[in-house]
Amino acid sequence: RRVVETGLRSCGSHLGFSRAWATSCTAAAGAGTMVTIAAASKVACRHVRSRGNNAGKQKRGGLNVSALGKSSIAFPDEEVASAPSRPVRVRFAPSPTGVLHVGGARTALFNWLYAKSQAGEMVLRIEDTDVARSTEESEAAILEGLKWCGLTWDEGPDVGGDYGPYRQSERIKAGVYQEQLDKLIADGHAYRCFLSPEELDEMRADAERNEQAFVVESPWATATEKKIQEMLDKGAPYVYRFRVPPDEDIVLNDLVLGEVEWNSDDLGGDFVIVRQNGMPMYNFGVVVDDAQMNISHVFRAQEHLMNTPRQVFIYRALGLEPPTFGHMPLILAPDRSKLSKRHGAVAVGEYQKRGYLPGGMINYLSQLGWNDGTNQEIYNIDELVGNFKMERMSKVAAIFDKDKFKWVNAHHVRLLDDEAAERLIGAELVRDNIVKDASGDFVQKASILLRERVSVLTDAAAELRSIMAYDIDAMLESEVAKEHCESGAIRETAKCIVEAHASGAMKDIGKDPQVVKDLAKQISEERGGVKKKALLVPYRFCLTASDHGPAMNILFDLLESVDDNVLCDVVPLGRRIELL
Fold this sequence. Notes:
- It contains 22 helices and 17 strands.
- Helix 1 links the parallel strand 7 and strand 8.
- It is an alpha+beta fold.
- Helix 7 crosses helix 8, helix 10 packs across helix 12 and helix 13 crosses helix 14.
- The radius of gyration is 33 Å and the shape is elongated.
- Helix content is about 40%, strand content about 10%.
- The chain has a four-stranded antiparallel β-sheet with strand order 3-11-12-4, with no helix packed on it. A three-stranded antiparallel β-sheet has the order 9-10-13.
């Protein structure tokens, strides 16, 4: 089978039609992707080679393609001409059947980053054709999750735009898909199929018995109009299937994977594009929507890679301009299995509840499959936009490491300015009944202190309770204090501190950092000149009942600021001296 010079080819006997199928609808999208369809016999799907942005001409099995860095459909002996680049328009198209998970958030992020880095636009589209599972609550949760991450869109169901409606259910009512289905039927690319589930199961079982791949070869692809009408008169249920042309190669120059190749014989035969209930299937709906919304680039996870050849055939059948494709690496668990709840929370909203920051979330997600070629790991959003290039996307799966995520988030907690720290950490202190209101001198000082000590906001209350506690009995019985108790260091140090407090030498301990230094010097002298660990560990034990914590002058400054707004137990200096 060949493509004649006019750019037309015979539909082939499998279609049951004699009309020619136009193939010269050459289209160019954004820079980077070449889609080629050629008559040949190859493998199901293989990564041929990575070329990056192609330049010059390439010869492949009688196929001359002018590789101009455009998205093109070409055929044997047909020269592909350049077309002007389209404005960059990307989309994120979730199904409202659950919450926003980290995988979806990362997809949205990379689309958003590409649009921002290219001065383009991002479209939010809701794919709600799964009537049984789609809910308004789920859609609202997804939008809320995206907004919390700081991701915005130029067009969508909540903001409108020139290419709406932006919900597939509303597009169905508007007749968008029916119009395109009618075109496919009229041109012989789609047909009614009355195969029952039982018949399909038998075909599948027969293929298994013969150790063959299951390929749908529907007798309804070539049925007469009379036979079809008989079934319609009986009220028999049917779907619409797309006719897959036999033995054609599809070569995709993916922006992430490089060159990938399929053969149409390995796609499983004619596939369903409209269900019995009239709802469009994913591959049909997404082609129509992306084309009508003028989407220039489709960036999605590699799990969608096998949808691409089917979509390319639908684009061609409808004479529509295909987008540039980029299939991003999957996100896997540390054991390289599919990421699930057992590996930690996977919903964006769950991480929000656990005290993660939007900046930490965006920073960590950006590192799952992408880097800018440097050793930098902490980015703010402006740095990500400025450094983002799709060529830096990895081809291999990314590993979700919750410990690394927490480490990244801790850096973003440290980067909070004083006002943001007081607002966010203060809210956590109110939530955990540490304080009545997220305001005042104590909250301000506690927030600035905790900013340097917690990785997630929800750790703030427990950390503050630990800092302000003074369990001297537990300290004396602990293993870490055993050495210092047996040597008499704690007793000697405690005696010096009690005497210093009685003399008034400690009255400004929270106000003047020099008080802590002077007292340490005095203790050293009275204990025979001990220094470093032998001096400082017993010193801290006596004043804080712990071997770690913030600087003691900062701690006592915080204790001095305790007022009626504070609800938790506090052990002031005077009481500590009594217990000591």
